[in-house]
């Protein structure tokens, strides 16, 4: 048995109470908190880092994908519209061909999110980490956070877990899954980074030739692709999503150290490749590696329904669908060079519905899960993890919390009303073509 020690302080001061606590301020958490607050709930948003926006911001990803699938609109909604409108106003976003994605400047996105949330009345706690939850029978009653103010408890009748790792569900004792069924391995992680000093008048628009060159030259970074996103409104900056840390264990101390160390080594190799081989990149340099490591996969809840690979590939619809996914099966194979394994279902024929049941963890009645840890198999998750889908599910969770007001039980939420409300705020619930 592991050695344990008892601390003298066993009680934690209660620092506040509100209607709804949202844990994690990635795009799904921001969408949930914003939607609930502008509809009148008193909302507390808790974030571990000192920035809002999660992977696209602290992870320097710079892109939001999964919004369109050919002629289908897969993701829409007031949060997305408002965020993009404000970003465009400050030169911080650009649509990509056909609007299936937006390039975004991480710095401007952070500020836009801050403004939107504060105007909606959300109370934001930064550098504050959820570390525990207290459960009374089937309800979470308090959560505990750690920050510069020490340990604090926060009370609410309803919670949304947007931590990306299902931390709240896990701390509350809900069953979770981890990795692929065969061996529990998770998708490879990528330490993304910002490349600066690019001469945009000479830089290629497409990376096709760069990829061909990369594949010809020996390299230690285990990927076959070059993936960069020019950041809008900047002076020659790009986000690079190429490093790959195989066989990673992102929830362990050793695993996190490996992602940082190997990620930084690979970033230098990649920057050197660009400098030597690409027009306009002769003076480029690694300006910043991401504060938030690019962890694609950790825990997923085992919810009331588990989305499957067949649901995704066949574009299945559900009576209780509350959002849509349009991204294909996109697995960065845990132990193989990225790009080496064919992905036959990377492009879907049609979108699929995401059932409300995928957001319901087992054993707890006042908790919803948004963002990447919704209930899905390893394969289905590789699609539903895309930013567009995470935003749509986050926004619906905020709405669901509003509908739950009073009874504060997820099972009492009328799904038909939820679907109708979602559509009234431009959310895409059922299949919709342009
Ligand atoms: C390397 C990489 C490349 C990707 N490429 C793309 C792409 O090209 N296009 C695309 O659309 N999507 C892409 N994705 C997927 C997408 O970015 C993520 O799946 C998505 O950001 C998940 O959103 P989220 O809100 O659930 O989680 P996150 O964005 O991870 O946000 C979770 C937030 O919760 C906070 N948090 C975590 N634990 C705690 C805690 N205990 N207490 C308090 N706060 C906590 C975190 O700090 C973070 O801010 C990529 C992901 C990765 C990692």
Which structural traits does this protein have?
single chain, alpha/beta, FAD/NAD(P)-binding domain, 5-stranded parallel sheet, 4-stranded mixed sheet, 10 helices, 21% strand, globular
Account of the protein in words:
- The protein has 434 residues and is an alpha/beta fold.
- It folds into 2 domains: 14-91 and 104-180 and 297-424, 3-Layer(bba) Sandwich (FAD/NAD(P)-binding domain); 193-289.
- 27% of the residues lie in helices and 21% in strands.
- It is built from 10 helices and 22 strands.
- A 5-stranded parallel β-sheet has the order 9-3-2-13-22. It has a 4-stranded mixed β-sheet with strand order 1-12-11-10.
- Strand 16 and strand 17 (238-240) form a beta hairpin.
- The mean pLDDT is 97.
- The structure holds flavin-adenine dinucleotide.
- Residues 23-29, 46-49, 54-55, 58-59, 61, 63-66, 129-130, 162-165, 167, 190, 192, 241, 292, 294-296, 371-372, 385-388, 390 line the site of flavin-adenine dinucleotide.
CATH class of the largest domain: Alpha Beta
Number of domains: 2
Q: Assign the CATH topology of the largest domain.
A: FAD/NAD(P)-binding domain
Task: Give the strand content.
Answer: 15-25%
Helix/sheet category: alpha/beta
Low-pLDDT residue spans: none
CATH architecture of the largest domain: 3-Layer(bba) Sandwich
Name the assembly state: single chain
The strand count comes to 22
Q: Name the strands of the widest sheet in spatial order.
A: 9-3-2-13-22
Number of helices: 10
Radius of gyration: 21 Å
Q: Terminal Cα separation, in Å?
A: 59 Å
Principal-axis shape equals globular
Report the mean per-residue pLDDT as an integer: 97
- Any idea what the CATH superfamily of the largest domain is called? FAD/NAD(P)-binding domain
What bound compounds does this protein have? flavin-adenine dinucleotide
* Share of helical residues: 25-40%
Main beta-sheet strand count, sense and barrel state: 5 strands, parallel
């Amino acid at each position: 048995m592991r050695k344990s020690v008892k601390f003298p302080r066993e009680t934690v001061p209660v620092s506040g109470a509100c209607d709804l606590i949202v844990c994690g301020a990635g795009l799904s958490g921001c969408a949930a908190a914003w939607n609930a607050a502008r509809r009148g709930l008193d909302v507390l948003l808790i974030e571990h880092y000192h920035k809002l926006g999660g992977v696209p911001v602290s992870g320097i990803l710079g892109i939001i994908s999964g919004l369109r699938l050919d002629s289908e609109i897969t993701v829409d909604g007031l949060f997305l519209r408002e965020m993009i409108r404000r970003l465009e106003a400050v030169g911080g976003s650009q649509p990509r061909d056909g609007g299936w994605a937006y390039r975004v400047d991480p710095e401007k996105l952070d500020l836009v999110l801050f403004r939107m949330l504060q105007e909606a009345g959300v109370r934001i706690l930064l550098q504050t980490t959820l570390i525990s939850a207290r459960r009374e029978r089937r309800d979470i009653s308090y959560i505990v956070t750690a920050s510069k103010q020490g340990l604090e408890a926060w009370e609410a009748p309803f919670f949304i877990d947007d931590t990306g790792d299902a931390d709240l569900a896990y701390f509350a004792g809900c069953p979770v899954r981890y990795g692929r069924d065969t061996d529990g391995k998770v998708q490879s992680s990528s330490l993304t980074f910002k490349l600066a000093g690019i001469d945009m008048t000479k830089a290629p628009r497409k990376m096709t030739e760069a990829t061909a060159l990369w594949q010809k030259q020996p390299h230690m970074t285990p990927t076959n692709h070059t993936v960069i996103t020019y950041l809008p409104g900047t002076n020659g900056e790009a986000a690079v999503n190429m490093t790959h840390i195989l066989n990673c264990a992102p929830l362990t101390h050793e695993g996190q150290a490996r992602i940082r160390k190997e990620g930084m080594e690979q970033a230098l190799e990649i920057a050197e490749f660009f400098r030597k081989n690409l027009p306009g990149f002769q003076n480029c340099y690694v300006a910043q590696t991401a504060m938030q490591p690019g962890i694609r996969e950790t825990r997923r809840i085992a919810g009331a329904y588990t989305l499957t690979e067949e649901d995704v590939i066949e574009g299945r619809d559900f009576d209780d669908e509350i959002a849509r996914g349009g991204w294909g099966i996109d697995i960065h194979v845990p132990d193989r060079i990225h790009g080496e394994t064919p992905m036959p279902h990377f492009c879907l024929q049609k979108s699929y519905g995401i059932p409300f049941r995928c957001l319901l963890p087992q054993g707890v009645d006042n908790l919803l899960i948004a963002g990447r840890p919704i209930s899905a198999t390893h394969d289905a998750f590789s699609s539903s993890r895309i930013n567009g889908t995470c935003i749509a599910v986050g926004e619906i969770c905020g709405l669901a919390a509003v509908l739950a007001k009073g009874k504060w039980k997820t099972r009492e939420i009328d799904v038909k009303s939820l679907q109708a409300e979602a559509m009234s705020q431009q959310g895409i619930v059922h299949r919709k073509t342009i």
